[in-house]
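#onboarding

Welcome to the new folks! Below is a worked example of what a typical request in this channel looks like: someone posts a single protein sequence, and someone else replies with the predicted structure as tokens. Don't worry about understanding the tokens yet, we'll cover that in week two.

Example request:
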Amino acid sequence: MKIPKKCTIQFPKIPVSLESINITSLEDYDEYAESKIVSCDLSEQKAKNLLIEESLLQRVTLTSARLPKFQLHDVRFENCDISVAFLEQCRLRRVEFISCRLLGVQMLSAEMDDVLFKDCNLEGAVFASSNAKYIRFEKSMLQKATFEGADLENITFDHCDLSQADFRNVKFKDADLRGSTLNGMQIEAKAVKGIVISSEQAIQIVSLLGVVVEDSEDIE
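Example response:
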């Protein structure tokens, strides 16, 4: 079997010159483009079909926001808090999350292409039934995250904590989990065929599948 290289993704295409704007509330079908949005508190806001493109968001708070069908194209989030936000059926293309909090974020049935999560806390995040291509998670916390029923293609978990993460009924294609913690991860035998792991992780995966490993000399 050919071992895939760690997934490389396209970076957001963000203009050098951005207009700094302040947002205090969100409405259905709002659109923001070529903007720099800094230190805005938008927690618990409700809006559907919101569009942000070619923009930079820094220290923006979206905790508990309800933003179904949120569309993000060529966007970078830096030090933002998106914890417990409801983003069902969001569409992300060339998006970066850098040093962000996304605890318990709900991205059910999301469509994601070329997305990076780096140094993020995604504990308890939900990506159930999502379709994701060319996704990288780097040095991020994903304990108890749920990917159940997701279709994941060219995905990399690089030095992430996947303890007790749920990968049941997931379709993997060219997935790389080398360097990540897999303690208590839920995964099925059929999904294992689509992943690459290190030799150190092999016994861990076997144990997760319910196989007991014993040397012959240990048998009485």
